[in-house]
Design a protein that fits this description.
Number of strands of chain A: 13
Low-confidence stretches of chain B: none
Largest interface: A-B, 28 and 31 residues
Structural class of chain A: mainly beta
Mean pLDDT of chain A: 78
Oligomer: heterodimer
Low-confidence stretches of chain A: 1-8, 10-24, 123-138
Strand order of the largest sheet of chain B: 2-5-1-6
CATH architecture of chain A: Clam
Shape of chain A: globular
Helix content of chain B: 55-70%
Strand order of the largest sheet of chain A: 6-5-4-3-2-1-13-12-11-10-9-8-7
Shape of chain B: elongated
Helix content of chain A: 10-25%
Largest sheet of chain B: 4 strands, antiparallel
CATH topology of chain A: outer membrane lipoprotein receptor (LolB), chain A
Chain lengths: ~260, ~750
């Protein structure tokens, strides 16, 4: 039961969008693929269905706002479903080179509580998606290489391999990028022993309202082979929010009775 | 025309050996199943509840890995514990690992809610160690991993229900790759059942051969010739092989109950051979020209009927176990009855056929036998005394029976497998440590269903928790209440009213748990609440695993929760054994009644007299009363093994009685009066009965060195059982026939 795995995907895309240095070959393909997707100043509604290793299904719905302000990445997530959790708001702030903060507002008691966004805490929050290990590293430290091509659902895709430059034997990720459209169609995560631990499928890319040339996948399905869980995410709505402000990411406690 | 037993002797011998070999080839397929679970039929209440509970909350099979030293709060122990927790969690079949490193410090500090790992940094100096000990004492989630005096720290492994018990070997292997100065102990029910399995193997490979060696020694001292030893020994060994082969063929597993099968066969299956050999020696000593073939035919002719009758009645009595609702008990009935059936065939055909190949005993051998026959003089004196004091014997037996009945009222039933191990064994030590320091390894769950986050339900849970915490049999009590109160410390400050209290609303409870799960702590929650918040449980560990404590606790819980509409059921492995105990009693009563009625009817039919049935069942009943009475008086609990003792008594007791009655009838037909006939029977059939009983008693003394406490008790009780049957057959039965002079034993009775 890891309902928060989507956060990792969001974080990764958010980070990749900013700091990736365009390079020749593999890096250029990846850069282009990330550039096709809207990863900053966006608001989306998402429905998530998680099936755990015992076949138990949980469903949740969130409204998510993401933006970057200078070196600071921010994400706000407001729970809409289930009913009892409605209004729980989580704000994650990450600053380059600093431990960020996770703030949580619980409407039932009006309290705002902060947690440190330590790599461990963030990794745990996104533990359904192992690529979050990469997300905590600076993109300059990643080595990309183009290792071939593969057909996904009838479309030919570039296969890009991403490794930690300082620790090439650690987990690696493979990105399958559609040759025609530069849509990222699949992300595979392989552990040190060569076993695939996670695979994420992205499909039904649609244009984002309010901005031209940007797309977003409507369906994201992530399978975690270690935990034997499957998370299906459906993007119900995604819009560009160029006017988003830092003030949108501020939580205030609510006094009792108000 | 020669008897078929001689005419076809080669075929008989070869056929018997072939059947035995075929059965022996099946034996490697046998498997051992040590758990209690298989004893409980599928439809029983607690088994159904337990399955439902496991489906919702995952496995309830817990293995504890404990590190022990003077003070475990030190760098090397905690480092080792961390590594072990990580690596043990990688083992296939381990569902989850919970250790002090998973415990969280939940607090509100400088505007931050901290859900930090409790043991993030291992202390390196004395000051830090003392500080950590204080933190442990103040954190409910962490303190359960440590003994009060910090001499023990544990890691809890939840074993997958379907994972084999051999996982214990893998755990040991992982531990051995990380040696340290601390002693490592394993505990918990899966470890106990695994150890039982190991002990079954070692008991089977050591004690049964030992019992057979003891028996062989006794037989030689009685018969003073090797053929007197070889024949009963071969028959017992071949019937045991056949039963084990049949067990493998039917796909049944060796359990704590079916381990009794070879023991029962050792006690019963040599009976027929001994009587044949006693008669053979009797004929050898008679004057006149004789041959081994002639003697073989003679013993077959003289004893085939009583042996057939004793065999059939024993089989009937043993099949009484089929009425038992415990499946392995029914298996035991079928296997033992098959073994006895084979022993019967071997005794009637194989033994005379084999004997016919031997030469007549040498003069030296006959002299040795003469020495052994001195027993006869003792038996004759004994017979004289019995025949002159029948009233005294009956009176004394009546008195002992009354005492036995009173003793039966004191019999306790206990199926707690924790008590199977003795003194300094690892299982016993770790079980005691778990019970004393960690609140026990057997669990009872009170299952709730409904909108379980509603304050009124949580408050009721809190009330039940407080009430049962005072019970001396209860170790730890945990529930969502413990977790939610702990979580409130992260949302409220100590000076706020809500600090360390239950949430004020279901929404607040939900949101506490939602935030907690964001911290990746689902596993901590899943022990008490299901994923959709429809079920919750209070998890109670039992410090005292005895049936009595479990029953008292169950009664208390039922009383407390009787009007609670949200309590679905109360169950747990701690309660399954209580249901099992009730089954043992009911099953035993049922199979005893069945066996006694069947024996009564069979003897009624064989001797064509209801009195024969009466006279045969009275000594048997008296023997049973004395046995169970002694168990009550000596404080020996009735458990799954000792409960089945009565089956051995039926098998042995009825054989002794029939042999006596049959010979008595022959002696009466030879014109002897009742007293003389009783004396003569005691010297002839009595000799066989005595040899048989004594060899079995000595054989069973071997079980006195078993690894299992119940086996040791069992050994003592088998000895008592056989002795009581012997006394009944050689004292009570002669006394009754002398006093009552039953018509069915008279020569003219048709």
């Amino acid at each position: 039961m890891k309902p928060y795995s989507f956060i990792s995907i969001a974080i990764i895309l958010l980070m990749l969008s900013g700091s990736l240095k365009a390079q020749e070959g593999a890096e250029a393909i990846f850069d282009k693929a990330v550039d096709r997707m809207l990863t900053n100043q966006l608001e989306l509604s998402m429905h998530i269905e998680t099936t755990d290793n015992r076949g138990r299904v949980t469903e949740r719905e969130y409204d998510i706002l993401m933006a970057r302000f200078g070196d600071s990445d921010k994400m706000r997530m407001i729970m809409q479903q289930p009913e009892r959790a409605k209004g729980i708001t989580v704000i994650i702030t990450r600053e380059a080179g600093e431990t960020g903060v996770i703030e949580v507002f619980t409407p039932s008691n009006g309290k705002v509580r902060k947690m440190k966004a330590t790599p461990e805490n963030l990794a745990r929050v996104g533990s359904g998606f192992v690529l979050s290990d990469y997300a905590s590293q600076a993109q300059e430290e990643m080595d990309f290489s183009l290792i071939g091509s593969e057909v996904v659902d009838g479309s030919s895709c570039y296969v890009l391999e991403a490794r930690d430059a300082d620790n090439p034997s650690a987990n690696l990720a493979k990105f399958l990028v559609e040759e025609q459209t530069y849509h990222i169609r699949q992300i595979q995560v392989v552990n040190e022993t060569g076993e695939m631990v996670n695979i994420t499928h992205l499909s039904e890319f649609q244009s984002v309202e309010g901005i031209s040339g940007k797309v977003y996948p409507i369906h994201i399905q992530s399978e975690n082979f270690e935990e034997q869980s499957v998370t299906r995410m459906q993007i119900l709505r995604v819009i560009h929010r160029p006017e988003v402000q830092e003030g949108d990411f501020v939580l205030e406690p609510v006094a009792e009775g108000s | 025309m020669p008897e078929p037993v001689i005419k076809y002797r080669t075929t008989i011998v070869a056929g018997s050996i072939l059947v035995t070999l075929a059965a022996a080839l099946m034996i490697p397929r046998l498997e051992i199943s040590p758990g209690l679970d298989q004893y409980v039929p599928e439809h029983l209440e607690h088994k159904t509840y337990l399955r439902e509970l496991n489906e919702i909350f995952g496995s309830s099979e817990i293995i504890l890995v404990m590190l022990r030293s003077e003070d475990v709060v030190n760098e090397s122990t905690l480092d080792r514990l961390r590594i072990l927790a990580d690596e043990l969690g990688q083992i296939e079949g381990i569902e989850r690992v919970v250790s002090p490193f998973d415990a969280r410090d939940i607090l509100y500090e400088d505007g931050f809610m901290l859900m930090e790992p409790f043991l993030d940094e291992i202390p390196v100096d004395q000051q830090e160690r003392e500080k950590l000990k204080q933190r442990i004492n103040n954190n409910k989630m962490a303190e359960r991993f440590f003994a009060d005096d910090f001499s023990l720290v544990s890691v809890i492994l939840a074993k997958d229900q379907d994972a084999p018990d051999e996982i214990v070997d893998t755990i040991r292997k992982v531990i051995s790759t990380h040696p340290g100065e601390d002693e490592v102990l394993l505990g918990g029910l899966p470890f106990i059942t695994y150890s039982i399995k190991g002990n079954i193997k070692s008991d089977m490979s050591l004690l049964i051969p030992l019992a057979l060696i003891f028996m062989v020694g006794m037989l030689y001292s009685f018969f003073r010739e090797w053929r007197g030893v070889l024949m009963p020994f071969l028959i017992v060994a071949m019937s045991i092989i056949l039963s084990f082969g049949l067990m493998a063929l039917l796909g049944w597993k060796i359990s704590l109950i079916t381990i009794l099968m070879p023991i029962m066969l050792i006690a019963i299956a040599n009976d027929y051979g001994i009587h044949l050999l006693t008669h053979y020696q009797e004929l050898i000593r008679r004057k006149g020209r004789k041959s081994m073939k002639g003697i073989s035919v003679q013993i077959y002719r003289d004893l085939k009927r009583p042996i057939l009758i004793t065999g059939l009645t024993t089989i009937g009595g043993i099949l009484g176990l089929l009425t038992h609702s415990m499946v392995p008990a029914a298996h035991l009935g079928v296997l033992t009855a098959s073994g006895i059936g084979f022993a019967l065939i071997l005794s009637l055909w194989f033994l005379p056929a084999m004997l016919s190949y031997f030469k007549l005993p040498s003069a030296a051998s006959l002299r040795r036998q003469e020495k052994a026959v001195r027993t006869n003089r003792w038996l004759r004196r004994f017979g004289r005394w019995v025949s002159h004091h029948p009233r005294w014997i009956v009176g004394l037996t009546a008195l002992v029976t009354v005492v036995g009945i009173l003793g039966i009222l004191l019999v306790r039933v206990d199926t707690n497998i924790e008590g199977y191990f003795l003194g300094k064994s690892e299982v016993r030590r770790s079980t005691e440590l778990i019970n004393e320091e960690f609140g026990g390894s057997q669990f009872v769950s009170v299952m709730f269903e409904g909108d379980i986050l509603l304050p009124e339900i949580l408050q009721r849970m809190e009330y039940y928790e407080e009430e049962i915490r005072n019970d001396p049999a209860v170790g730890n009590v945990s529930s969502p209440v413990t977790l939610l109160k702990e979580l409130s410390k992260g949302f409220y400050e100590p000076d706020e009213q809500e600090y360390n209290q239950l949430p004020a609303s279901a929404d607040e409870a939900y949101q506490f748990l939602e935030v907690f799960s964001m911290g990746g702590n689902e596993e901590e929650m899943e022990q008490f609440i299901d994923y959709n918040f429809e079920h919750a449980r209070i998890l109670i560990s039992l410090r005292d695993g005895s049936n009595r404590s479990g029953k008292d606790l169950l009664k208390k819980l039922q009383e407390l929760t009787k009007d609670d509409p949200n309590v679905m059921f109360i169950t747990g492995n701690g309660l399954t054994k209580i249901e099992l105990a009730d089954m043992v009693i009911q099953g035993q009563i049922r199979s005893l009644i069945f066996a006694i009625v069947l024996i009564f009817l069979l003897l009624n039919f064989i001797f064509r007299s209801p009195r024969a049935g009466m006279i045969s069942t009275i000594p048997l009943s008296v023997a049973l009363i004395i046995l169970f009475g002694l168990m009550g008086i000596l404080g020996i609990s009735l458990d799954i093994a000792t409960a089945l003792l009565s089956s051995i008594m039926i098998g042995v007791g009825i054989d002794y009685t029939i042999h006596f009655l049959w010979r008595f009838k022959i002696e009466r037909s030879r014109g002897l009066d009742h007293m003389d006939a009783a004396q003569e029977t005691l010297c002839t059939a009595g000799r066989g009965i005595f040899y048989n009983a004594f060899s079995v008693i000595v054989g069973f003394l071997a079980l006195g060195i078993s690894n299992f406490a119940p086996m040791r008790y069992f050994s003592a009780l088998v000895v008592i059982s056989i002795a009581v049957c012997l006394i009944s057959a050689l004292l009570l039965v002669p006394a009754i026939v002398i006093l009552t002079k039953p018509k069915f034993l008279e020569p003219d009775y048709k």
